[in-house]
Each structure stands twice: as structure tokens, then as C-alpha cells.
């Protein structure tokens, strides 16, 4: 697929200045999403969302008849659930319900059955099964049987009555569920040390990840009656290996493991020779399918194996992410289809998201960083490409800003990657700029439609996103360079990104702001605390401000996340002085510019107390700040009206402190 080049000054075409668009166009989540094609290729199912109310729609592709059913309430005020859809066979659909459950129905909306979670509890009264993930689909036509991961209980309840899955212990059992009757059996009892189960192409659980004292290995068994034993080269003392899936003939296990330069790559393990083959896909800079974090953009998983649908389906290709989304097809026919689609829809990432069992019909999502995406039906006979619907039909991509990948060298010579979005019609020189570090920290930014980025660009601001050291997807060495450096080297990379943009003449040195959410919110506060002359203002959305207090709270509420947090950030006792020195709360006297903080009062990840502590510190230091706090909001904002208010306040805050005009 042909995508924008990475040479900034050659990629941004001259265009007319964009008129300010209504905030509602950026605040609303996709109206249509999650579209999937039935195995017989006759029906697509997708989710419709209008101001928080959701329906599942099923459309007959031959008659265009649409049937819809409203999804039961989430049980969580204001929050629109991330519903996932999967066809159990050609006439029965499985869909997720928040929190921790699944339901199923026929494509005519009949024979509705709550299988697990809240929906099952309300239907069957008294039987509650906690199952957040699907494991295997048998595609049987009669019962639509499925394997689901089951947890004993959710470890905690957040302030608005919703179960959290952050700290379930990662020790799932496995349920086999009849989607017709709701009947189930526990087919695999977790002995207490299995973090992941991997079914073979027939649904038999023959590979698992075993964890002891924070170290993992891969184990396997020849049959479900055979004893478990370590997979060669994947024992506790070996370099890390993580299983992905079996081949259709069960002779190969696809895994990710490190290349010689410690980048995650996909390898085949052959059970006949008991040896690993050559890597299927590698990259010297990027991980193909990283273990730490897998990215999504425009509703599409960016790093995944692609199999032919149905039991025994063969491996067709691999989706992966470098600076832009990529796909490697091992099947020559699929490669030809991809080339034909790309020729028809140039300049877009054209992702084949679903296929019929005979591979004659394919569902394509065509998208870009300035385009939320449109679903198309591709028929191999002809071939023929037909438009179905746009995810956000109100968005005109021609009015959105283009985004390109960039790279630069930090002060110590480390190469840093990121993305640059320039506002339409304002040239490429001396622009007001918002630096936007991502959350995590062990995540990464991707080339995809981001409503906040587009909102800022529409208001006249350039946006610079930075994959600072410690970001996932760039290899083991780059990831480790961020360990225990969250307030130092990581922050230096963000600072160096801003200075790179200034040195290139892209950014007006007197009009640079910093904005982020979660860890990005922390970085925004650290930016104005440690670089008082660089930024005009900061916007902190649900950001950390006191590491010691956060780690203590995690020890009480998220006990299993305590160890990983300490390994990345530091120990609240042994490293107390270091953590205070890298906590914005204790640096409030250095903050001389206005700050806007936005926080959910029921945030279970970064508690609202973090915002209150920062506000108190700024007030004591005589700083200027605004605080927007909302009840019934968790980590970030979900309520449509609250998102609108947040964008209004962000726009007004920037206009007061760093006008775009």
C-alpha cells in the first residue's frame, strides 16, 4: 500500500486554510464500527453508536435488508462499551458486553442468549461467569460452540460499580460454552501458574505460558492427555518466547521471539523436527508483534497474524507496524488482491479485516491518519469493490490535516521516531505547536485518525507526537532505555523533539505547548516544570503528579501491578528521593505557565487525588491553573457531553495562552 513519505517538507501539499469545524465532529466516537463478515459471505454485522446508545446491526449483502437490536445497558453511567463481534457460524453472532461477559443471537435477532457476565446473570439469575476474552471458535453450525477464558472473580470494583480487568491475576481457566443453550463446562482448570492458553487448530489446549516468580516459559503437550513439558528453547533459562497460534495442520506453532539484535519477530516452530525455522518477518528497527504492547489504529489491530477463516485455516499473512501500517502476505493470491485494492484506493491503508470461508468475499477498511475509514466489500470475481459505509460519515477527509512520520536524534545521539501533523493552509514555518507525548509509557503512537490531533490541527496548531525511549515496538534495547528514566531521559526526548521542530523552523519558539493523557499528562507537567522557558502552557489529562502516592495506592488497589510499576518507575522507599525529584507535585514552584488539568473523579488507574495534590501544590506556589473534574468518569473521558466540554476548554485555554492566529 502506498502511504505518505517521511520527508516533511516534501509531503505537505499546499492547501486552503481549514475553517473551524464544530467540536461535535471531533467529540463523537465512530457511528459504525467493528464490522465483520459472516463465514458464508452473505451478512455483515457491525455496531452503531449514537450519543452513547448502541445497536448491533446485521445487513444482508445481497438484499441490503438491515436488522438491528439494541445492546443491553452497560451498567456503567455514561460509558459507551467497546463491543466486539465475532461470527460463531454463518447464522449466529457472538458479541461482548461490559463488564466481562458475552452474549449470542441469530442473525435475525432471535434465540438471544446471555452466555456470561452481567447479561447471563440477568437472564439466568444467580450464575455469574467472568469471561473477558474469547479463545477459540469451533464454527459448528448447530450450537455455535466457543472457548472463553474464565476468571474466578474480579479483584476489585471501581467507584462506579464496574469490574476492572487490570489485575485479575492473569491466571485464567477455560470454559467451553454452548451459545444456543448457555450450557458450559470448565474444560481446563488453571493449576495456578498458567498465564496464557493456546488452542490448536481443533480447539485442544496444547500450549501454555507458565509463570513462576515473575519468569515465564512455554510448555506443550502432544495431546490433552499427555504431560506438559517445556518447549525446546523456551524454558525458564532461555530467552523469552511467546506463542501466537497453531498452523491449520497443527504441525507448526507460530511464536514471537527475539532476533539477534533483540527485536520481536515471528518464527515457526516445527513439531516434526522440534526446531525453529527462519523468521517469517523481521525488521531492524521495529518489532513485528511486540509482547509489551500491540497497537490499534482506526479500530484495526496493527500487529497480528492473519489466518484463513474457520478451523484448520492456513496462515495467509502478517500485519505489522513500522512508521506506517504494513502487511506481508505469504499467499500469492492474497497479495494480488491487496495490490488490486490498493490500486483502486491509493494513499490509504487498506486493511482486509474479515473474509468469507471460501475467500471469495472480503471486508476492507480503507483508512488514513486524516480519514477514520470506510468499509468496502471486495469480491474476487471481477474483481469488484463496493462501498458499504464510513465509520464517521460526518468527517470529510479533505478537511482534515495530513500526518507524516518523522525521526530525529536526541541529545545523546539516540534516534527517536514520531509523527507530525500540520494544520491545513498555514504553511510549514513558524507554526504554533502542541507537543503531545503518548501514555503508557510502554505504548507507542501510530499513524491513525486521532480526534484530539485533528481538533488541534483544525484550530491552527501543529501537533508533534513523540515515541520517546521506553516506548514499545522499537526493540528490547530501546524499551529498556526508558526503565527508571521516566522523569529524566524520557523527558529529554520529548524536550529534544520540541527543540528539533523549532530548529527546523516548523514551530514558533514563542508558541509551543505540551499536552498529554495518563503518562502523557505526567510528561506535560514535567515538561513545564523542567523546561520553564520552552512551553507557553500545559494540558494534563488524567496524569500522574506524585509517583510515591500513586505506587502506594497501586499496592493497595492493584497489588499485582506493584512489581512491574516499581521496575519501570522506582521503589517508593528505596528511591523516594529520586521519585520526589521526578514528581511534578514537588516541582510546582518551577511551573511559571498556565496549566489546565482534566480528570475523572472515579479514575481507578490514576486516582483523582493526583489532580488534587497538584492543584494544592500549584496554589501554594502561586501558580495559575484550571481544573475540570467529572463524576462518573474513569481514566479519561467517555461521556459525549464531557468530551465536548473538554475540547471546548482545551481550545479556549490554548487560544488565551498561545493563540494560533
Structural class: alpha+beta
Number of helices: 13
Tell me the helix content. 10-25%
Please state roughly what percent of the residues sit in beta strands, choosing from under 5%, 5-15%, 15-25%, 25-35%, 35-45% or over 45%: 25-35%
Main β-sheet: number of strands, strand sense, barrel status?
8 strands, mixed
Task: Give the strand tally.
Answer: 37
Give the rounded overall mean pLDDT.
Answer: 91
User: What gyration radius follows from the Cα positions, in whole Å?
Assistant: 25 Å
- The largest beta-sheet arranges its strands as 30-31-33-32-34-35-36-37
State the end-to-end distance.
Answer: 37 Å
**Uncertain stretches:** 5-10, 155-168
Quaternary form:
single chain
Shape: globular
Sequence-ordered SSE layout with sheet pairings:
Blueprint: H1 8-11, H2 24-27, E1 32-37, E2 43-50, E3 53-60, E4 66-70, E5 85-87, E6 92-97, E7 101-106, E8 113-114, H3 117-124, E9 130-137, E10 146-151, E11 173-177, E12 184-188, E13 194-199, E14 205-212, E15 215-220, E16 229-230, E17 241-246, E18 252-258, E19 264-270, E20 275-276, E21 296-297, E22 300-301, E23 304-307, E24 315-321, E25 325-329, H4 332-344, E26 349-355, E27 361-368, E28 371-379, E29 384-390, E30 403-409, E31 415-421, E32 431-437, H5 451-458, E33 462-467, H6 476-480, H7 489-503, E34 507-517, H8 519-530, E35 538-541, H9 547-557, H10 562-568, H11 576-581, E36 595-600, H12 609-621, E37 625-630, H13 640-657
Parallel strand pairs: 32-33, 32-34, 34-35, 35-36, 36-37
Antiparallel strand pairs: 1-2, 2-3, 3-4, 5-6, 6-7, 7-8, 9-10, 10-11, 11-12, 13-14, 14-15, 15-16, 17-18, 18-19, 19-20, 21-22, 23-24, 24-25, 26-27, 27-28, 28-29, 30-31, 31-33
Amino acid at each position: 500500500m502506498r502511504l505518505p513519505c517521511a520527508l516533511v517538507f516534501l509531503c505537505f501539499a499546499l492547501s486552503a486554510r481549514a475553517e473551524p469545524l464544530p467540536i461535535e465532529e471531533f467529540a463523537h466516537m465512530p457511528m459504525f464500527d467493528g464490522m465483520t463478515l459472516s463465514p458464508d459471505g452473505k451478512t455483515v454485522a457491525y455496531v452503531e453508536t449514537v450519543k452513547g446508545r448502541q445497536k448491533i446491526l446485521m445487513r444482508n449483502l445481497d438484499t441490503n435488508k438491515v436488522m438491528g437490536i439494541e445492546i443491553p445497558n452497560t451498567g456503567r453511567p455514561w460509558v459507551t462499551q467497546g463491543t466486539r463481534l465475532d461470527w460463531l457460524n454463518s447464522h449466529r453472532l457472538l458479541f461482548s458486553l461490559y463488564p466481562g461477559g458475552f452474549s449470542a443471537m441469530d442473525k435475525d435477532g432471535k434465540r438471544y442468549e446471555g452466555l456470561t457476565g452481567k447479561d447471563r446473570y440477568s437472564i439466568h439469575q444467580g450464575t455469574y461467569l467472568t469471561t473477558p476474552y474469547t479463545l477459540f471458535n469451533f464454527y459448528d453450525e448447530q450450537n455455535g460452540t466457543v472457548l472463553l477464558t474464565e476468571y474466578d472473580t474480579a479483584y476489585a470494583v471501581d467507584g462506579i460499580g464496574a469490574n476492572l480487568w487490570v489485575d485479575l491475576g492473569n491466571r485464567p481457566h477455560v470454559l467451553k460454552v454452548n451459545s444456543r443453550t448457555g450450557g458450559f463446562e470448565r474444560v481446563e482448570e488453571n493449576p495456578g501458574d498458567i498465564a496464557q492458553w493456546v488452542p490448536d487448530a481443533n480447539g485442544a489446549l496444547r500450549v501454555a505460558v507458565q509463570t513462576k516468580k515473575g519468569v515465564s516459559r512455554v510448555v506443550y503437550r502432544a495431546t490433552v492427555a499427555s504431560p506438559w513439558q517445556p518447549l525446546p528453547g523456551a524454558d525458564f533459562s532461555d530467552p523469552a518466547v511467546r506463542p501466537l497460534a497453531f498452523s491449520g495442520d497443527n504441525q507448526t506453532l507460530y511464536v514471537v521471539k527475539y532476533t539477534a539484535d533483540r527485536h520481536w519477530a515471528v518464527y515457526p516452530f516445527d513439531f516434526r523436527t522440534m526446531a525453529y525455522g527462519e523468521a517469517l518477518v523481521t525488521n531492524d528497527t521495529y518489532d513485528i508483534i511486540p509482547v509489551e504492547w500491540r497497537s490499534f489504529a482506526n479500530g484495526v489491530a496493527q500487529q497480528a497474524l492473519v489466518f484463513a477463516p474457520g478451523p484448520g485455516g492456513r496462515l495467509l499473512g502478517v500485519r505489522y507496524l513500522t512508521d506506517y501500517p504494513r502487511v506481508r502476505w505469504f499467499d500469492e493470491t492474497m497479495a494480488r488482491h491487496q495490490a488490486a485494492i490498493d490500486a483502486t484506493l491509493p494513499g490509504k491503508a487498506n486493511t482486509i479485516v474479515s473474509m468469507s470461508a471460501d475467500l471469495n468475499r472480503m471486508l476492507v477498511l480503507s483508512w488514513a491518519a486524516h480519514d477514520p475509514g470506510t468499509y468496502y466489500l471486495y469480491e474476487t470475481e471481477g474483481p469488484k469493490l463496493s462501498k458499504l459505509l464510513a465509520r464517521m460519515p460526518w468527517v470529510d477527509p479533505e478537511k482534515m490535516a495530513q500526518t507524516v512520520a518523522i525521526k530525529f536524534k536526541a541529545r545523546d545521539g539516540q534516534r527517536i521516531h514520531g509523527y507530525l501533523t500540520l494544520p491545513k493552509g498555514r504553511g510549514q514555518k513558524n507554526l504554533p505547536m502542541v507537543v503531545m507525548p503518548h501514555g503508557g509509557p510502554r505504548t507507542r503512537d501510530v499513524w491513525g485518525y486521532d480526534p484530539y490531533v485533528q481538533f488541534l490541527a483544525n484550530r491552527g496548531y501543529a501537533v508533534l507526537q513523540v515515541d520517546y525511549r521506553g516506548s514499545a515496538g522499537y526493540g528490547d534495547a530501546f524499551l529498556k532505555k526508558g526503565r527508571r528514566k521516566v522523569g529524566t531521559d524520557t523527558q529529554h526526548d520529548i524536550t529534544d523533539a520540541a527543540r528539533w521542530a523549532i530548529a527546523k523552523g516548523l514551530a514558533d519558539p514563542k508558541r509551543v505547548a505540551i499536552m498529554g493523557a495518563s503518562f502523557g499528562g505526567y510528561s506535560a507537567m514535567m515538561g513545564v516544570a523542567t523546561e520553564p522557558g520552552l512551553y507557553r502552557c500545559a494540558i494534563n489529562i488524567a496524569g500522574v503528579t506524585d509517583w510515591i502516592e500513586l505506587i502506594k495506592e497501586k499496592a493497595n488497589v492493584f497489588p499485582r501491578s506493584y512489581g512491574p510499576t516499581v521496575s519501570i518507575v522506582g521503589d517508593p522507599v528505596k528511591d523516594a528521593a529520586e521519585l520526589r525529584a521526578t514528581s511534578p507535585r514537588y516541582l510546582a514552584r518551577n511551573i511559571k505557565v498556565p496549566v489546565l488539568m482534566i480528570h475523572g473523579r472515579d479514575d481507578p488507574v490514576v486516582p483523582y487525588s493526583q489532580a488534587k495534590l497538584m492543584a494544592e501544590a500549584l496554589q501554594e506556589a502561586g501558580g495559575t491553573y484550571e481544573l475540570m473534574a467529572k463524576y462518573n468518569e474513569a481514566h479519561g473521558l467517555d461521556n459525549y457531553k464531557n468530551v465536548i466540554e473538554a475540547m471546548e476548554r482545551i481550545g479556549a485555554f490554548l487560544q488565551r495562552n498561545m493563540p494560533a492566529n
